[in-house]
TrEMBL record:
Subcellular location: Membrane
Keywords, ordered alphabetically: Membrane, Transmembrane, Transmembrane helix
PROSITE patterns, A to Z: PASTA
Organism listed in the record: Alkalibacillus flavidus
Stretches assigned to the PASTA domain: 657-716
Protein name: serine-type D-Ala-D-Ala carboxypeptidase
Membrane-spanning residues: 7-30
CDD domains from the UniProt entry: PASTA_Pbp2x-like_1 (cd06576), PASTA_Pbp2x-like_2 (cd06575)
Biological or metabolic pathway of the protein: Cell wall biogenesis; peptidoglycan biosynthesis
Length: 730
């Protein structure tokens, strides 16, 4: 009986195990035949497990100035990591992982910004926790080419790098509020840079491009399998942005602003240079500023030229007078009583900066003296406030300029009552940005037409080089007529030249100009009253030159410079304006139209190219020219100025010969003459300071080659400066 039970049990066991075996075998056969498990394709699953994809980052487009100089570039940077697992070495004859933690920490500490103790702890913790690989945080991210090479020379096993691109700004802080900056969009530093500010942000989509990829299969160690087909999608690099900014003019501006910043320690400086005919912004800067390469201790996140409205002061008088002229109610010879203005007998007083006034004077003299009372008379008794408001809107003071930069803000036309209406006429109460004022002032260069400002010239395809999305001159209104412009330009020219004018110190050497000063009171945020004393004003100036056909317009404002007396504040704006405008006009080869000498006669320069040197020099010297020969040859190859140019007696003429090039003694030369020498001989010119040349890097009579770099140092003359009258425009 017992044997029978054992036999039955054995049969059951055999049956169960046979059934299980057949079930499993059937399952294996089914999987082998179909290649699926729970509707999952095993072959596809295996391929997905082996398959990996590596991003091929697109190279960010470059940003250029108007001449093709790079303002924002890309440079390789390296992110360091360490592999710690000895499995990675495998059968390699040399170790591929970190073998010696102590030595690795000690050597790396001499190169990267991380202590030996921290490095050793970081590496050892990873080993103790069986980590396959680790990174080194910020200390190992974004390493330069030099640092990368230095670490490579240490020959440390297990140390590897990922190469990526970082943004680099060759000119540092120059135009940083315009160009902006980028940042990595991933903490590990491995992802594409993204525009965070300025043009970099405004045109991020065009600059970024589209990443590509490589798709391949790998083994368990992450190494590519042999004899496989890779799928490669090449990246589409970002397009290039070309700005209207001129790097040379921007340099003039930055250097002048830095000089004033260091000497006067103002709270703010804002300035811009524009081609008033087209609206192209050639230079723009603010203080405080920042270096986009480091972005450390940024004090000012705003591009004040477009983002910081303030009460501008007497520069607004340009548009008050323009409105009165256009409306036909301005008679420059009519008189009024200066000093004080009241709407009613018991009303508040509006005073001139000279509270006693200048007696009964003409409106023309009132403009020259920057009289607040003259503006009050024009707004209240001649134009009337409602009509004046129409002109303010016609000049677009009620809206943004539309400049192609992000972050533009506007202030407010404060027009609630008679007091605000009148004070707006001389630049107090209402608030505007410098760019709004510059846009309105383009009417003075265009017969009354107002043009839209812009900083992006065009975009080019990075692959084909073809231009697209090109900016053009855009007329956005005509608030005044050409006749009004002519009358106003003559009057504003006298503000610069006449003895009564407040802008005497803004006269340019060699060029006629027109302009208007401003000395605006600043509201105290605690008391609501205007500040008084010393430098507690915004000192500003807007000017155009040459007067008859303006090539450049510049606005500059300096807030609260460290000066003891109010009249000293205008020294800051005078220095910046005169330095930048004179150098820029010479750089652009604008012919001087102002001659302070007794002789103003000009003559046409003859063509002496092809002549013998002695013959050419004699001919030009007989005509009163100052001749400088460049080179040791016997025949004239080229000359500057070009033949046919109108020149004055004593003007320097450069003659280039066919022989070996020799450097003249440049001592006492103007920047304009040095620029001409550089262009004539294809020299790469760099310079420091303003005034006349005192030092030169290529010694006199030394030979030089085309394309060589010439550095000159210029120094101002010791002429005494004259003080100017300034106005308190409260």
């Amino acid at each position: 009986m017992r044997q029978k039970r054992h036999a039955i049990t054995l049969m059951v066991v055999v049956f169960v195990f046979s059934a299980l075996f057949l079930t499993i075998l059937g399952r294996f056969l089914y999987i082998q035949a179909t290649g699926e498990v729970y509707n999952v394709d095993l072959e596809e699953y295996a391929e997905n497990m082996r398959e990996t994809e590596t991003t091929l980052p697109a190279e960010r487009g470059l940003i250029y100035d108007r001449s093709g100089m790079v303002l924002a570039d890309n440079q390789p940077v390296y992110n360091m990591y360490a592999i710690l697992d000895e499995v990675y070495t495998g059968e390699s004859e040399t170790p591929l992982h970190v073998v010696d933690v102590e030595r690795t920490a000690r050597q790396l500490a001499t190169v990267i910004d991380m202590s030996e103790e921290d490095l050793r702890s970081h590496l050892q913790d990873a080993v103790d926790n069986d980590r396959f690989q680790i990174a080194f945080g910020s200390a190992g991210r974004g390493l330069s080419e030099d640092t990368y090479q230095e670490i490579q020379e240490l020959d440390l096993s297990g140390i590897y790098f990922n190469e990526t691109k970082d943004r680099y700004y060759p000119n540092g802080l120059y135009a940083s509020h315009v160009i902006g900056y980028t940042a990595f969009d991933g903490e590990d530093g491995s992802k594409q840079v993204t525009g965070m500010y300025g043009v970099e942000r405004q045109l991020n989509d065009q600059l970024s491009g589209q990443d590509g990829y490589v798709n391949y299969q790998q083994d368990a160690f992450g190494d590519p399998l042999r004899n496989q087909e890779e799928v490669v999608q090449a990246p589409d690099d970002g397009d290039h942005v070309h700005l209207t900014i001129d790097q040379k003019i921007q340099s003039f501006l930055e250097d002048a602003m830095t000089t004033v910043e260091n000497e006067y320690d103002p709270e703010r400086i804002m300035a811009g240079v524009m081609d008033p005919d087209t609206g192209e912004v050639l230079a723009m800067s603010n203080r405080p500023t920042f270096n986009p390469n480091s972005r450390e201790n940024i004090e000012n996140w705003y591009n004040d030229m477009i983002s910081t409205p303030f009460e501008p002061g007497s520069t607004m008088k340009i548009f008050t007078v323009a409105a009165a002229m256009e409306a036909g109610v301005y008679n420059g010879q009519s008189t009024y009583e200066s000093g004080e203005f009241k709407i009613s007998e018991h009303g508040r007083s509006i005073n001139d900066h000279d509270v006693d006034g200048w007696g009964t004077i003409s409106f023309n003299e009132g403009v020259l003296r920057s009289s607040n009372v003259a503006m009050a008379e024009l707004v209240w008794n001649y134009l009337e406030p409602d009509r004046f408001l129409e002109y303010l809107k016609a000049f677009h003071f009620d809206r943004k300029t539309g400049i192609d930069l992000n972050g533009e803000r506007i202030g407010e036309i404060s027009y609630g009552g008679p007091w605000e209406q009148i004070t707006t006429g001389y630049g107090q109460g209402s608030t505007f940005t410098p760019m709004q004022i510059m846009k309105a002032a383009t009417t003075l260069a265009n017969g009354g037409e107002m043009v839209k400002p812009y900083v992006v010239s065009h975009l080019t395809d990075s692959e084909t080089g073809e231009t697209y999305q090109k900016s053009e001159r855009e007329v956005v209104g005509q608030p005044i007529s050409a006749d009004t412009v002519d009358e106003l330009k003559d009057l504003l020219g006298r503000v610069v030249t006449d003895e009564e004018g407040t802008a005497n110190s803004f006269q340019l050497d060699g060029f006629t100009s027109l302009g208007k000063t401003g000395t605006a009171s600043i509201p105290d945020p605690e008391t609501g009253l205007y500040m008084r004393g010393g430098g507690n004003y915004v000192f500003s100036y807007i000017g155009l030159a040459p007067k008859d056909d303006p090539e450049l317009m510049m606005y500059v404002a300096v807030k609260q410079p460290d000066v003891e007396y109010r009249y000293q504040g205008s020294e800051t704006t005078t220095y910046i304006y005169n330095t930048v405008m004179e150098n820029s006009l010479h750089y652009l080869d604008v012919s001087p139209d102002r001659n302070d000498t007794n002789s103003t006669s000009t003559q046409s320069l003859p063509d002496v190219t092809g002549q013998q040197v002695n013959e050419a020099v004699s001919q030009l010297e007989e005509q009163g020219m100052s001749v400088q020969v460049v080179g040791a040859g016997d025949t004239i190859n080229a000359m500057w100025p070009a033949s046919g140019s109108d020149v004055v007696s004593g003007q320097r003429v450069l003659l280039q010969t066919n022989g070996e090039l020799t450097m003249p003694d440049l001592t006492g030369w103007t920047l304009r003459d040095v620029l001409a020498l550089a262009r004539l001989n294809d020299l790469d010119l760099d310079y420091m300071g303003t005034g006349l040349v005192q030092q030169q890097s290529i010694k006199p009579n030394a030979t030089f080659d085309k394309g060589q770099t010439l550095v000159v140092e210029l120094t101002q003359s010791d002429d005494d400066e004259t003080e100017e009258d300034v106005e308190d425009t409260e």
